[in-house]
Automatic annotation (TrEMBL):
The keyword Transferase does not apply. Disulfide bonds join 790-844, 794-846. PANTHER family: EXTRACELLULAR MATRIX GLYCOPROTEIN RELATED, VWFD DOMAIN-CONTAINING PROTEIN. It comes from the Eukaryota. Transmembrane segments: none annotated. This is Mucin-2-like protein. Residues 43-93, 188-302 are annotated as: Disordered. InterPro entries: Cys_knot_C, Mucin_vWF_Thrombospondin_sf, VWF_type-D, WxxW_domain. Residues 373-552 form the VWFD domain. The keyword Disulfide bond applies. It is found in: Secreted. Residues 767-850 form the CTCK domain. Keywords: Disulfide bond, Glycoprotein, Secreted, Signal.
Amino acid sequence: MKCVQLSDCNCIFHGKVIEPHQVDGNCACINGRITCETTTPTTITSTTSTTEPTTTSTIPSTTSTTEGTSPTTTTTTTSTTEPTTTSTIPSTTEVSCENGEWSKWVNKFHPTLQNRGDKEILDDIRCPNTNDVFSKIQCEPLAHLKKLEDNVTCDLENGFICSEPTSLDNLMCRDYKIRVCCSSISTTTPTSTTTPTSTTTPTSTTTPTSTTTPTSTTTPTSSTTPTSTTTPISTTTPTSTTTPTSTTTPTFITTPTSTTTPISTTTPTSTATPTSTTTPTSTTTPTSTTTPTFTTTPTSTTTPTSTATPNCSCNNIDNPECMWTEDCSIKTCVNGEPKINRTCNSTKPECDREEDLVSYTNECGCESMECNCECKVYGDPHYVTFDNVHYSFYKNCTYILVKEVIPKHNFGVEIDNYICTEDKSCPKAIIISYNKFKITVSTLDQLTLTINNRTESIPYNLNGFDIVKLSHTSLQVYIPKIRTKITARRNRFVISIPEQLFLDNTEGQCGSCTRKKIGGCRRPDGTVEKSTCCPTAALDWKVPDTTKPHCAKDPTNVTCPTPTTAPLTTSPPGPCCKLCELLHQKPFEKCNKNDMETYDKTCEDDCHSTNICSVVCANLEAAASECQGNCVEWRSYTNGLCDLDTCDGILTYQPCQMETDDRCENNKVILGQSLSKPIEGCFCPKGMKSSNNDTCVHTCCVDHSGRQRNNGEKWQHFSDNCTILECFSSSVKENKLHCKNQGNCPEPQRKWDEHHCCYECVPTGRCETIEYNNTIKKDNCIAEVEVTRCKGRCDSSSEFDFITDRMSHDCKCCEEVEQEERKVDLICNEGPNKSYSYIYIKKCKCENCEPKM
């Protein structure tokens, strides 16, 4: 007998063995006992409630008179209410979905013993209407057990996440489902609010031409085309600290009155040069001249998200026809019904370089184009900054590559260098900081990923990151919210950030993402140095690293060296140097010659200073990626010096792959992503998928023990005998067995099926067929066969019959009632095999025996 902790004891539930902490419906095995609870489901909701932001504006209202009186000017100002957000609200009642409808429940991911957490992402949810927005999220477990508590987050930013349990009382997260409230009205929180500050200084002068009272007709109108003798003079002095990309147009509604009220509509457009137009509306015909002077000074700080004008709605009786912008669409009320015109802006921006133009899906679901800034680090190492300054840097500490000048997105990148030759360094890892997460990607020996000092497997799709392997030798970290992409492979890193979010707001060894080319490098104190001083200025971006105590003594604020023409001390050229000649030969003949000259210089530098072919090859690799629009198959020209020796097993090298491998996740196939330009690396053969352990498989079917299953293969669930799993090419299908007319009898009387799921009750001693093996021996010939016999008890009785005046015997015998003839080949010691026939009993039954007299 083995003694175990109470928490490790199994349970028996409805004839099934339930593992510790395993959930079955509304019951769970806890401390050796089945605990069942029927409770009102406790759901987790995250609601984003929004108070419509309004623009602070000043509307002068002038009442005209016919006598020599001064017009009266009134100023009406509305205020801006900040939106509020309430998150993670547990509820035990039905959660309402105001002004919308709930989506279908989604339950794509399931916790397992290997991956004990759970997650559900919003990308898997679709609303009935494409114009709907997510205004609320509801997360709910499939099994509601009070004693099992999960550590979960549920919000509209990250979806649902259940962290792996740390307590032994809970083996894994419960399985959760999520849904969202799809609203057709403006319920989303604007990412920012533009508040123009207006100062109105009307100066009115009325000069009547007559002392008599003329007859005037006032016809108020809401038209935007003025008919008036009023001549406003508008002066706008905008102050903009960013470059917004959208336009906010506050609309003011004209209400008819008995007096003449010129209504001015101020329309600041948040562009590089915002303008403001003041348009009075009036049809007054007095013989007077009013000349108000307006001065409006809007201050735009961020890009606003378009929201509906509060006074414009289709149920507004006073204004049944109006227009507003909401949810990336232009909406118009026609006869009390909203008409939607969804538009996508296909404007193509002008970038400094054609290769910096990239496409992305914006917040409206439209394919848009934008300019990116790209920084590269390769070789031992060489840098190409965001503004295309080239320099080399050979120190082996940890340095800031990218840092925000004014923190807006909580994003930064550092690089960890190491000594790869006697006096030169190479990049071995890149450290990405975003919000509260620290991601380290190491490429020194093999690709490794750590997040907050914890090793993670690839792919990783949580906490706002999408990390995938581009090949088995390179990976990509993508941060969708800030559209930032970092690719990593041995001796080479590339950082790509959008101009729209980071223009003129980065510093570090990668320089500034800017269009104001400075042709040099910037120190942390803002000092700009010439490009020849970039290696010296790069010293100042060192960061403390406890693993490298020697770096604390490395100097900073070093004066730029005086340019010299003295030749550099180099070692004799080795066999790797011939590789640099390829940059001017056939493989690279379609590439830009000026770009190739730059890489030729760094290549020659690396070959003379390191004589390490892998470092030299990094230059050719960087040059090939720079050859925009062309696939360069260059490794076959290197006589094996630059071969990728990490293509293990059945992986094959592909020089120009346009999509990543399909991969397996939770027994399902995740299709590979299409790439904007070709990449090289080690990939799975056609028709195979990449598994979690970096091998190639034909199917994604894996059982609980990690055993690979083939297409069409069936096996039993490890903890549920009544669930049969079947492997298909793209997923694993569960088939549930259902037991019919199952009685209740003691275990010894239960006759189980082959899966030990269903049984029938068989009384002890019942006449039945018993199978056993027997050996047949005939004339030195032998064979082992399966035979049957009838065995069991049958009812019998004896009694005195008063009619016949003798004993009556009623006898039942366990006899065969169904049989067949079978043949078997007997194996003989001498001579050929012999065929032998025997009777195989298929069914037994209690039959009348010959009565005893």
